[in-house]
Amino acid sequence: MPQIRPITDLRDTNEISEICHSNSEPIFITKNGYGDLVIMSIETYEKLVEGTRAEEIVTEAEPEYKAGTELFDAKEALSSLRKLDIPPLLRNK
């Protein structure tokens, strides 16, 4: 269940950090009773970005598929992508 906290709770950064990491979901911060910020762990953010990018790729590919564009074998396509050595979007250091 999402947590909604007032902006004054940001004073206790350790508590907010622990909540973000333990729940793996964002915390919604309000200011004067209205939504103002969303805070989440970097892990949750990376999952969100990866999921969004995957959806964008599928959405982009659907018209090509419906138009009868040539299909490629998944193993061959992934193999050729690995050879390009493209760095991941966000890399843990």
TrEMBL record:
Name this polypeptide is given: Antitoxin
Family to which this protein belongs: Belongs to the phD/YefM antitoxin family.
A Pfam entry, by short name: PhdYeFM_antitox
Signal sequence region: none
Spans traversing the lipid bilayer: none
Function: Antitoxin component of a type II toxin-antitoxin (TA) system.
